[in-house]
Structure formats: C-alpha cells, structure tokens
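Minutes, methods subgroup
Present: GH (chair), OT, SY

1. OT presented the first of two proteins processed in the latest run. Sequence and structure tokens recorded below as shown on screen.
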Amino acid sequence: MGNTSDIRNGLCIEYNHDIYSVVEFLHVKPGKGPAFVRTKLKSLTNGKVVDNTFSAGHKIEVVRVERRVFQYLYKDDMGYNFMNMETFDQIRLSEDILDNPTFLKESMEIDILYHADKEIPLTTEMPQFVTMEITYTEPGERGNTANNVTKPATVESGAEIKVPIFINEGDIVKIDTRTGSYIERVKV
C-alpha cells in the first residue's frame, strides 16, 4: 500500500480492478484548494490509456511487477511459444497479450512483464526497432526520393508495411514496432 507521493513513471498500481502502469504524472498544487496528482495510466491487460486525478495523500495499491527476458520460438495453433532465457522454461501466450505479434521473428528476445505475487504474465514489450528483410514489393525506382511516395511491402514475418518507392525485394529495413512504420534502409 502506498500513497500519491509514491507515484512515478513506470510504477504499476491496481486501480478499478485492473493493473495500470503510470505513463505520465504531474503533482499540482493550486493556489486555492488541495493539492492533487494528475496521471495518465495504461492498462497492462488491454492497453487502454486513461486519465485520472488522485487527491494528495490518496492511498494506492502498488503492484510488484517483474520483467523477464524471453526468446520467441515459434507460433502454432495454440498460440505463441517463448523460452525463458534464464531457466529455459517454455510458455505459450495468446495473441491478445502480445504487444505487436506481426513483427515477431524467431529467436527474437522480448520482455514479458509478470505479476510478481501471482506469477501470471501481464503484457509483453517488444524491442522498439526491428530489422527485417523485404520479401515482396513492386520493383523500385532508383533516384526517386524527392517526394514522400510510399508503396506496400511484405516483410519476412508476413507483416505488410509502407516503404519508400526506392526499396526493393531483399533489402533490409528498420521498422518501428510501436507504429509499424518504416524508419530506414539498413546497409549490410
């Protein structure tokens, strides 16, 4: 049990029968009236972001969360299979708990957040950027970089992204996993 003075970015709390992570917070002390804490909370179970205001000194339930490194193995009919990098135990997760499964590659390492007391996985965190090979796209035009023209392309994981017109099949590109957008071409 804690109170609003314990609030910081990344803190996990139980609120409205769900577990939330603090994304942003601001302690406000107006000239008139009591102080309060304005927060932006992200649900670890469904990803929704909510704004909430706590009065100063309000009691909050702090949840202990552990971050564990897992390696992605494969996908089957039952879900996505991962291996703990410390104990080599294997777990299977459903698609709804994964952050962005379209950009998973075999042997990629991701973080899985666990509820420390109940030993249940809450959510996953993919690396911010991944590099993938373009497996299919229309032929590109060399030198056409003046406009911000894009075309669809399929990467090795099967995900479809928009890339600049000069990208060809076989090129390696850097992708932002949060938005699914092209960042740059990677030189090999």
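2. SY then presented the second protein from the same run.
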Amino acid sequence: MTEKDAQAEIALDDSEIPRSFLLVVDASEEMGAALRFACRRASHTNGSVALFHAVAPADFHHFASIGELMDSEARSEAEKLLQRAAADVQRLTGQIPGLYLREGDSTEQLLKVIDEEQVISVLVLGAGTSEEGPGPLVSALSGRLAGKIRLPVIIVPGSLTAEEIDTLT
C-alpha cells in the first residue's frame, strides 16, 4: 500500500462522519426551540439527536426511606420528560434518539457524557428569555467552562418560533 493509498483510506468525507446533536432536556419553554433546532440540523446533515437529563439527588437525609422515595419520583419524572422529548425527536426526524439519564449535578454529568461519548459532535442548549437570564447551564458553558468542552455549543434563543427555526436551518 502506498502512502497516498493509506492517506485516502484514513480520510473520511463529511457524509461518513456521524454527527450527533446532544440536547439538554428540561421542562423549560425554551427547550422546545432547542429541540426543533437540533432535529432540523440533524436531519439536514444526516446526523442524529441524543437527549440528556440529569436528576439531582434528593437532599433529604432525615429518613432514608423518604429520600429514596423522592429519588424514585424524581427519576420517574425525568424518564417521562425524556420520553416526551424522544417522541418529538422521532416525529421530527424519523429516528429514535439516544438517551442519557444521569444522577448528579447537571453540569458535571453533562461534561462526563460529552467526554465519554465521542460520537457527540455538537451540544444544543435553549436560552431562557426571562429577566433572570439564559439559565445556569448556558451561563456556565458560555462562560467559565467554555474552554473545557471539546465541541461546539449552539445556544438557541427560546423566543424563536418554529418558522424562524425552519428558516435558519
């Protein structure tokens, strides 16, 4: 095999590189805009969508059984949230998304998923439109953690309409 043949074998064109758009799922209004954006981009680039949600452990230590019940209920609600988002992704893309449900701090768990899953190529976040700002995750990843993440972050304004998203994508 010549050096040129080896280089050709190693090189992949963009259509062969799997793109996975990781979307952080929560119950916010802006998540809908981010979900639509991620789905449209995935569809237009032969990519896929993956969904992430982290459940914070219950901070109730007085009675172990109550803390366990609170954890169980929180996980059940998170699973329902991911299932609803997954149904929307399947409706918009025709594909079943990857699901990442973690327990712990959202930012910490998100960074771990990104480090562990090399197929993830873009992180998509929805920015809140309230006076309180874009949200803690958007603030952290566009600020103090911006240099610690290995992939591009797309922040989708929560105020975008479906028509505006469709025009952009």
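Chair's summary of item 2: The radius of gyration is 18 Å.
Next meeting: continue with the remaining queue.
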